[in-house]
Design brief:
With 171 residues, this protein is α/β, with parallel strands linked by helices. The chain contains 6 helices and 6 strands. Helix content is 43%, strand content 22%. The relative contact order is 0.16.
């Protein structure tokens, strides 16, 4: 793995009959969330009742990642699965960031350490081949989920949303 891709982050996953596990390694950002969003679309069509995110090796995340989390449980969300979402092994700073935009109101965030389950993880494929406009639309939708979750997030992300929407309208 190149140093560049490690900075951007990566995801490893496992799916059991009842749960999907997503391990976040490095930074979960708008540049690394495309493979995660594709995986969640696959999970949506399964009988998975729980999606667990292990943040023990996550160095940080941005609003696109948080909006992607919200999309899993939001009605009409692109990744909507009807599954319960649980975050484990989040740092205090990460829990504070999730709380600042309201994500912790609809997603369970465990405060106690949780050991990794005995499952074999596979890395998600890099989604560099994703069409740039499709990627930007997914970034917009992730942020729209955050605004729908808490109208105060419009103030936080409104300028960014306007910028990305302008970029899309030029294409």
């Amino acid at each position: 793995m190149s140093p560049q891709s490690n900075r951007q982050g990566r995801f490893s996953v496992a799916v059991t009959p009842r749960a999907a596990l997503v391990k976040v390694d490095g930074l979960a950002t708008l540049n690394s969330c495309a493979p995660l969003q594709s995986f969640l679309a696959e999970v949506r069509s399964s009988d998975v009742s729980e999606v667990i995110f292990d943040l023990s090796d996550c160095r940080g995340f941005d609003s696109t990642f948080m909006g992607t989390l919200v999309s899993i449980v939001s009605p009409g969300g692109e990744g909507e699965t009807g599954a319960r979402v649980v975050l484990v092994n989040a740092s205090p700073e990460q829990r504070e960031l999730l709380g600042s935009v309201g994500v912790d109101r609809i997603i369970d965030v465990c405060r106690e350490p949780v050991p990794a389950p005995p499952v074999r993880l596979r890395p998600l494929e890099d989604a560099r081949a994703v069409d740039p406009d499709t990627h930007l639309r997914k970034v917009v939708r992730a942020h729209e989920h955050l605004v729908e979750l808490d109208p105060k997030n419009e103030e936080r992300f409104g300028a960014f949303l306007a910028l990305v929407r302008r970029e899309l309208s030029r294409g």
